[in-house]
Design brief:
The complex is a heterodimer of chains A (316) and B (733). With 316 residues, chain A is α+β, with helices and mostly antiparallel strands. Chain A has 11 helices and 11 strands. In chain A, a hairpin with a 5-residue loop joins β10 and β11. In chain A, α5 runs antiparallel to α8 and α10 crosses α11. Among the domains of chain B are: 167 residues, 2-Layer Sandwich (Aldehyde Oxidoreductase, domain 4), CATH 3.30.365.10; 230 residues, Aldehyde Oxidoreductase, domain 4 (2-Layer Sandwich), CATH 3.30.365.10. Chain B contains 16 helices and 30 strands. In chain B, a hairpin with a 2-residue loop joins β22 and β23. Classes of the chains: A alpha+beta (316), B alpha+beta (733). At the A-B interface, α11 of A face α3 and β28 of B.
Chain lengths: 316, 733
């Protein structure tokens, strides 16, 4: 770990102002990912701005009938909120499928969206990795890539986004509210939040340097049956091989987002029209253009079969 | 004391304390965080500095240049140790690769430097400033590609690479029912909780290390050889060990580099291996490719048994002895086994819990299941039919005790085996449900073991031996042994372990620790009893009970024998040829029920039962804990554990506990263990055997067989992950 300086701020304005003073700084909240990355010198910020005490820890109703989730709301608190459990069950189920109780107690809503890939080559600083060290190459391509992306990847990077929460947020059409260094606020639909790896896999989101997430908003509830099926080799405390987050209405229509298949929670709205016809056409649409390796090709049939299971469960 | 004739009745047979389910005597220390582990021994030496290991970034080749300038200039740095400045170092007998590499690199993450600084953070930060240029060499990393170059290795630990009885080829060719299948097992990591860790301090030319080590005397000897100093100048202290599983049988980089670092820094230095270094710097269970051929008559009698295994290791290393159990487990007149060894430039392979049998049974016991299906026989009945009470390769040697059939039959009864249906038909909602069975087998090994016992005026008995407790319960069974022998309650016994200043024990490994170390304590207690009787002037048949010594009408408090000074006795238990006359082995049967998600192929264990026949169980509570832990490890081997090899760069990619998955609580819903009532007079006066490794033997195959029974899909390549089932699962509507 490189030496760094640290300050604690008490407002969003102070946070972005601190960033303006110390370019190259990182915001830190729960630290469940960033600290590990710093210990391994995968991230080497010279300055940390601790935003964990900002008053962004409330879950409030919006005038539109939805919820505004403060950026600092802990995963545990979000998962157990009565309104979330009642109206956005997918979100609760995705959250509790992730990490462990201890980690969820620390991890925040904003931090969860920004956690970095768990590609093992990203974590080994002896190995080439375009995400960690742009231009060095991708060791996962041609290496151990059973866990890697099948859609949206590039010749530079086949890493997946590890979040479960983000999969639910994507299916729920969440928007990410931010404020930048100039104090300008914006709301970014989660569909537009993550950047495709292309030739620059180290650039992961559309956030500008110093732009701070302040909240995540959910539109008004859409009803339906909410199912999150995370498929993994062991029963708990493992990242998804694939995950299916679905909201299914009585008439068979609905929404589906996938985890563990790409650089972002993966949703193809056009494919959802086929939901009443069963899993296959939906999976085909979701995974159109998929590019697999010998080791991760299983993800394609797995998505279809897991989705079929979810749809059967939704029918009851 | 020499143990060369079967034991007769002795004080242990009273079983007043031995054989009782006893809580760990050191348990309160562990649950309150007051049992100090190696890295936490802040009080043993003042002014400890911190060492951080730099591991090689390549698997094979040379260090072209190494620039220490930036690291030396970093804040807090006191010293940097490399092969260039460490002086002449030999390689220990138990190490295959050097613990400090350079300029030649033998494997990935081989230690090439230790940076010593005032704080851990400074040492770690400076370690990343060591600039190394490598000349990458060409290595072999792919076992499947290397088996054509594999050679017949020399005997390892007395196990010959080949065996042959009768005419296997002819008998197999003539067998009406044949099975010929290949199986693979991957590299496994011990993945114990506590990392390898050491604090080292020099006083003149005397070295003390506070470390985490299973085999004190081996490791003192190897450290002396490596450093080129007399054994007498080295003290190891390892009283508490947070798991080993074979990963701490030998010195690793932490011990050597802490010693070298302390010398260079001229102050005590502590070193722990970070998790990634535990996986690529230390040892692992090597992968195997195995071929099993079984030939049987139509009614299930085995006529031909063939088992071959290929594994790889660094030059100078040894094979995984995966065929060992096949020489002993089933009857059959025509037999062959063979092990071949390829050179691989992966990290060093070595022992992990039940080396040989654990991966060997992963293959053999699927093969038996496959044969049962071909025969249309129940796999329990097939095993029972092919039981043998003698060593099948040397029929003049009987097993000392062998209740494999009773294990199988008891387990079948308790588990509800009769409810097992044909493959692929049992459903529970979305789950396909199946049951599997496998035999467990692991040899019993005894080793010489010494102990010293002290009797104080207070009546307290203190045991000293360099035996280790790696989480198994050694403290407690030694206390039970001494208490039984000396006729005192458990709380009158103090046990001191893991110090090389104490008499040399068998150590912890190969499931030999429990029987061997308690037998050593038995021998020392026999001597102490003689000293007590003599001191008190009692008849030699005096009875030791209730804190008293009684003979005739006299009854004297035990402590009175030490009224004018502590009584001390020491002895070493040594063994005659009973283990040659009798085949001493431990047996068991594992029963497993799994559910397989019919859609996704996710496999979840639902129930597990082990029935074990392993001699006298010294402490049923500790033994049960050993067996359920081993069953858990076996479930991991079956379903998830695999060190992923990068065949281009030559290293284990998933080198942390996020990537190398071991079972979590949610994976293990219900486990049961039954011990058959046994006492084996040929093993020692304790009449005990090992049990800690028996528990893992066969488990993975039982899981694999249950998966087959649930789905009708036979997977022969471990781990059995859902991607290996997916294309073959029944179609779903």
């Amino acid at each position: 770990m490189k030496s760094f300086t640290y300050e604690r701020v008490d407002s969003s304005a102070a946070a972005t102002a601190a960033f303006a003073r110390t370019p190259g700084a990182r915001f830190i909240a729960g630290g469940t990912n960033l600290l590990d990355l710093m210990k391994l010198e995968i991230e080497t910020p010279q300055h940390l701005i601790d935003v964990s005490r900002l008053a962004l820890d409330k879950i409030e109703a919006t005038p539109e009938g939805g919820l505004r989730i403060g950026a600092m709301v802990r995963n545990t608190d979000l998962a157990s909120d009565a309104r979330v459990r009642r109206d956005y069950g997918l979100l609760t189920r995705a959250l509790v499928a992730g990490a462990s109780g201890q980690l969820r107690n620390k991890a925040t809503t904003a931090g969860n969206l920004l956690q970095r890939t768990r590609c093992p080559y990203f974590y080994d600083t002896n190995q080439p990795c375009n995400k960690r060290q742009p231009g060095s190459g991708c060791a996962a391509i041609g290496g151990f890539n059973r866990l890697h992306a099948v859609v949206g990847a590039s010749d530079a990077c086949i890493a997946t986004h590890p979040s479960d929460m983000a999969v639910a947020m994507r299916a729920l059409d969440a928007a990410i509210e931010t404020v930048d260094a100039a104090g300008k606020a914006r709301a970014i639909p989660i569909a537009d939040f993550y950047r495709a790896p292309a030739k620059t896999p180290h650039l992961e989101t559309v956030l500008a340097p110093g732009e701070l997430i302040t909240a995540v908003t959910l539109p008004k509830p859409v009803g339906g049956t909410h199912i999150y099926h995370k498929v993994r080799d062991r029963a708990s405390y493992a990242f998804a091989l694939i995950a299916v987050g679905a909201i299914v209405q009585r008439d068979g229509t609905g929404r589906v987002a996938l985890g563990g298949v790409g650089y972002k929670p993966w949703r193809v709205e056009a494919a959802e029209a086929a939901l009443p016809r069963g899993a296959k056409p939906v999976a085909d649409g979701l995974l159109a253009g998929a590019k697999t390796t010998h080791e991760n090709a299983y993800k394609l049939p797995l998505v279809e079969r897991a989705l079929a299971g979810v749809l059967a469960q939704a029918k009851g | 004391m020499k143990f060369d004739t079967p034991a007769t009745t002795n004080p242990i047979d009273q079983m007043k304390i031995v054989g009782k389910p006893t809580n760990r005597i050191e348990g309160p220390l562990k649950t309150t965080g007051t049992a100090p582990y190696a890295y936490e021994r802040h009080d043993v030496a003042a002014n400890q500095a911190y060492g951080y290991v730099v591991g090689s970034a390549i698997a094979k080749g040379r260090i072209a240049s190494m620039n220490l300038g930036e690291a030396r200039a970093a804040p807090g740095v006191i010293a940097i140790v490399t092969a260039d400045n460490a002086g002449k170092l030999a390689k220990g007998d138990f190490n295959t690769a050097k613990l400090l590499g350079g300029p030649d690199i033998e494997h990935y993450h081989q230690a090439i430097a230790l940076v010593v600084a005032d704080s851990f953070e400074q040492a770690r930060a400076a370690a990343s400033l060591v600039r190394v240029e490598y000349a990458r060499g060409k290595g072999a990393y792919d076992l499947a590609a290397a088996i054509d170059t594999a050679i017949k290795p020399k005997a390892s630990f007395g196990t010959e690479p080949d065996s042959a009885v009768g005419n296997f080829a002819a008998a197999f060719a003539a067998a009406p029912v044949q099975l010929d299948a290949r199986y693979t097992t991957p590299d496994h990591s011990h993945a114990m909780m506590e990392p390898h860790a050491t604090i080292a301090a020099w006083k003149g030319d005397k070295l003390t290390v506070w470390t985490s080590n299973q085999m004190i005397a081996w490791s003192v000897g190897d450290m002396a050889k490596t450093l080129g100093i007399p054994k007498e100048n080295i003290r190891f202290d390892s009283p508490y060990i947070g798991g080993g599983f074979g990963g701490k049988l030998f010195n690793r980089a932490d011990v050597l580099l802490a010693a070298l670092g302390a010398k260079a820094a001229k102050r005590p230095v502590k070193v722990a291996l970070p998790r990634p270094l535990m996986i690529n710097n230390t040892t692992h269970r090597p992968a195997t490719i195995q071929r099993v051929r079984l030939g049987a008559t139509a009614d299930g009698k085995l006529t031909a048994i063939g088992h071959e295994s290929w594994s790889g290791d660094l030059p100078g290393g040894g094979p995984e002895t995966a065929v060992a159990q096949t020489r002993l487990l089933y009857a059959g007149e025509n037999r062959m086994t063979a092990m071949r060894l390829a050179v691989l430039d992966l990290p060093e392979g070595n022992a992990m819990r039940a080396p040989g049998e654990a991966p060997g049974l992963m293959a053999l016991e699927i093969a038996v299941d496959e044969l049962a299906e071909k025969l249309g026989m129940d796999p329990v009945a097939l095993r029972v039919l092919n039981d043998t009470q003698v060593d099948p390769e040397k029929p003049s040697r009987p097993f000392s005790q062998r209740q494999l059939n009773k294990c199988l039959e008891t387990g079948a009864d308790k588990f509800g085996w009769s409810k097992r249906a044909k493959p692929g038909v049992t459903r529970d909602g979305r789950w396909l449900v199946g049951m599997g069975v496998a035999a467990a087998f692991r040899n019993n090994l005894n080793g010489p073991s010494a102990a010293r016992v002290r009797l104080a005026k207070s009546g307290v008995v203190t045991v000293e031996t360099d035996m280790t407790d790696i989480g198994t319960g050694t403290y407690t069974i030694i206390a039970q042994t001494a208490a039984e022998m000396m006729g005192v309650p458990l709380d009158k016994v103090v046990v001191k372990l893991g110090d090389s200043a104490f008499p040399v024990s068998a150590g912890s490994g190969g499931q030999w620790g429990a029987n061997s170390s308690t037998a050593g304590v038995y021998a020392a207690c026999v001597k102490l009893r003689e000293a007590v009787v003599q001191k008190l002037g009692l008849a030699s048949d005096a009875v030791f009970a209730d804190g008293k010594v009684k003979a005739g009408r006299r009854s004297v408090a035990l402590g009175d024998a030490a009224a004018d000074g502590e009584l001390v006795a020491e002895d070493n238990m040594e063994y005659g040829d009973l283990a040659e006359k009798f085949q001493q082995s431990t047996f068991g049967a594992h029963f497993v029920e799994v559910g397989v998600d019919a859609m996704t192929g996710e496999i979840r264990v639902r129930r597990m039962l082990a029935v074990c026949a392993a001699g006298r169980i010294l402490n049923p509570k500790a033994a049960r804990s050993q067996v359920i832990g081993a069953m858990t490890m076996g479930a991991g081997a079956a379903l998830m554990e695999e060190l992923a090899v990068d065949k281009r760069f030559g290293f284990f990619v998933n080198h942390d506990l996020a990537g190398y998955e071991v079972p979590v609580h949610a994976d293990i819903p219900h486990q049961d263990v039954i011990f058959l009532d046994e006492a084996d007079p040929t093993t020692s006066p304790m009449k005990a055997k090992g049990v800690g490794e028996l528990g893992i033997c066969g488990v993975a195959a039982a899981v694999a067989n249950a998966v087959y029974n649930a789905t009708g899909v036979r997977v022969r390549n471990y781990p059995i992950t859902l991607d290996k089932l997916l294309g073959k699962l029944p179609d779903m509507v």
